[in-house]
Amino acid sequence: MAFRLNYNESTLKKNLDKMGTKLGAVILMYSATKASELQAKMKMNRPWTDRTGMAKALLNAKVSQPSPTMVRITLAHGVDYGIWLELAHGKNYAIIAPTVREEGPRIVSDLNNLMSKLKL
Prior knowledge:
The chain is an alpha+beta fold and 120 residues long. 58% of the residues lie in helices and 12% in strands. It has 4 helices and 2 strands; from the N terminus they run ααββαα. The chain has helices spanning 9-45, 54-57, 82-87, 96-118, and strands at residues 60-67, 70-76. It has a two-stranded antiparallel sheet. α1 (9-45) packs antiparallel against α4.
């Protein structure tokens, strides 16, 4: 049984562009899901005792795309004294750095697994 593959460069380019767009959307959705999980994890595992609840309430994780080839998840405090929670007192009250150290490799591994399944 023989078959013939017909394509032209224009159609191939359009389809490859669509694939890139779809893959980018998948990565953005994955990143948004992870950002939400990271934010919840930081709020749940914060090592300090709340006084006003503001430090906990304003912990956040956001997804951005600074360039077409980069997706960034940013973890941050929303209170001005967040820097002191992260760096002072022997870093005993840090939550951002420990979360990045624990979850960062897992996120990269998940993305590598996704790419290997796509055989890119």
